[in-house]
Write a structure and sequence with these properties.
Helix content: 10-25%
Strand order of the largest sheet: 5-2-1-7
CATH topology: Immunoglobulin-like
CATH class: Mainly Beta
Oligomer: single chain
Largest sheet: 4 strands, mixed
Distance between the termini: 64 Å
Mean pLDDT: 86
Structural class: alpha/beta
Number of domains: 1
Length: 143
Amino acid sequence: MSKIPALLFSLLALSAPVLAQEAAPATAPSLAVELNALQPAENGCRVTFLATNNLGGQLDRAAVEVAFFTSDGAIDRIVTLDFKALAEGKTKVLQFELKNLSCDGIGRLLINDITACEGTGIAATACLDGLVTTTRPDIAFGV
């Protein structure tokens, strides 16, 4: 009877490395954009984003078309924000000062389009296809 527990222990010990080798599924390529802050500025509103490029290569240029809605749901403006170059795996802080825009009046930000997604080995559609949005302020933000 003592041989069965020993044999069972041996089988479990041998199978442990095999189980450990089963890796978690690979993370899909992504461009993560977080709406981090809205701060009143001298001539309008300073909008801060955090962008992280996990698309698998250097982005030489990324530009995002964003629609700003009022708290009543009306479109205030649509602007293209140039995120410039984004290194693979690095998070970058991006600030844009939008003139004549009251931070308090913003009710929602919508990523209307990705107007530039350029980099060696990066498909032009990769930025929009892999876009992941989050927000810290209590404002709707997404696609």
